[in-house]
């Protein structure tokens, strides 16, 4: 499929440092293999194209269902319709892990909100804790 079919991908990319980190996890320096810059750039282009393809298909599915938001179910249906059904189970496992991580973050933010203290009060408590720590260790 061409860029024209998707409206053009020229301004879309993935962070090179993030892609390099993923590649390094898969091909550690100890492996003796090197992943060249041109290979990394090609990988980024392929990833953007893949994401665009899945997103476009998922959008079509959500529109057919008269939904305004693309849900996980739309993504999994898109993957299956495009021949990537073998990846659905693993993707759902990763999605569930992500949801669990988000729950932990929400609990932390709710803890602050539920404290009943203002931001100024919390800041004063933090500054006092820093002064106490400095006196003990300084």
Automatic annotation (TrEMBL):
Pfam families: CBFD_NFYB_HMF. Residues 13-79 form the Transcription factor CBF/NF-Y/archaeal histone domain. GO terms for cellular component: negative cofactor 2 complex. Its main location: nucleus. It comes from the Eukaryota. It is found in: Nucleus. Transmembrane segments: none annotated. One of its GO terms (molecular function) is protein heterodimerization activity. One of its GO terms (biological process) is RNA polymerase II preinitiation complex assembly. Keywords: Nucleus. Part of the NCT transcriptional regulatory complex that acts as a key regulator of ergosterol biosynthesis and the azole exporter cdr1B. The NCT complex binds the promoters of genes linked to azole susceptibility, and especially represses the expression of cdr1B transporter. Forms the NCT transcriptional regulatory complex with nctA and mot1. This is NCT transcriptional regulatory complex subunit B.
């Amino acid at each position: 499929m061409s860029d024209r079919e998707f409206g053009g991908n020229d301004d879309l990319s993935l962070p090179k440092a993030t892609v390099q980190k993923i590649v390094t996890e898969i091909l550690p320096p100890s492996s003796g293999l090197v992943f060249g810059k041109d290979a990394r750039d090609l990988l980024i282009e392929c990833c953007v194209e893949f994401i665009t393809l899945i997103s476009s298909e998922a959008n079509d599915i959500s529109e057919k269902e008269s939904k305004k938001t693309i849900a996980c179910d739309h993504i999994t249906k898109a993957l299956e319709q495009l021949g990537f059904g073998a990846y659905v189970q693993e993707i759902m496992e990763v999605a569930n892990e992500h949801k669990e991580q988000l729950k932990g973050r929400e609990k932390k933010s709710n803890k602050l909100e539920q404290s009943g203290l203002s931001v100024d009060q919390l800041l004063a408590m933090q500054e006092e804790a820093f002064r106490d720590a400095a006196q003990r260790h300084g």
